[in-house]
């Protein structure tokens, strides 16, 4: 069997997969591949799938399958898998890191000291303690964020279209969440319904000065509307790992905004998570091709 590792996984993965067959990381060998392993960078579009006539299986190391043309894969008899449970802690920790760094002024403190400035008086901090966190989407990652936010003394409320109760968050309507939350953290998948969901109309229903955290998907936010809300003060700050496109174009209105705190889509990229993803990939291959 020929396996193409198309994106960045843990460095131990090629050796772990050799028992199943020939492993390559050369994308030019797509045409020979029977199994392709991708993360976010590779888009398994119709054209990509059509360039791989031997392909039998696509495994996406990660949660969302929005970068795979699942309908076309199905038509061609190609099985598609993901590793949905592996990444929850890694992404939740990054959401918490952004949520802590913004009110604690960590990034401005660091950057200004690098520039030789001492902004002890200027960098006023606020606390997470006793603030209300609103989670939009309380599945695997949202739940891990809820558990961590409660440890910081936050009140955690959540809106989820398909979840009615959670041991870790009080489920409320979207209107209640928008009216009450000091912080809003996004944890829905990208679907036809969530695409562009956070637009000017929705932002206007949030508390003035809300801090928005996005480790879900960039396209859930209408970036120009958010940029306007950040400039006008309706949103105090935006902490994000995800973008309308990876990487955002230099013209993105968010890149230059002083109250945007950014990560380059590294939510799932912890060493521990990449090892867990490797474990799940080995399990999937063993299930289909037998233990070697
Ligand atoms: P999950 O399926 O466990 O949870 C998603 C939740 O969103 C579910 O409870 C679902 O009911 C809810 N939901 C769906 N549509 C909704 C809507 N219209 N309104 C409100 N709630 C809605 O998934 P998860 O493992 O928690 O992952 C969530 C998302 O995080 C993924 O789909 C992916 O887009 C993103 N993600 C990002 C990274 C990263 O690197 N930053 C890594 C992994 C996952």
Automatic annotation (TrEMBL):
The UniProt record lists the keyword Cell cycle: no
Organism: Eiseniibacteriota bacterium
Protein's name according to its UniProt entry: Hydroxyacid dehydrogenase
InterPro entries: D-iso_2-hydroxyacid_DH_PdxB (IPR050418), D-isomer_2_OHA_DH_cat_dom (IPR006139), D-isomer_DH_NAD-bd (IPR006140), NAD(P)-bd_dom_sf (IPR036291)
Methyltransferase keyword on record: no
MF-aspect GO terms: NAD binding; oxidoreductase activity, acting on the CH-OH group of donors, NAD or NADP as acceptor
Superkingdom per UniProt: Bacteria
Pfam families: 2-Hacid_dh (PF00389), 2-Hacid_dh_C (PF02826)
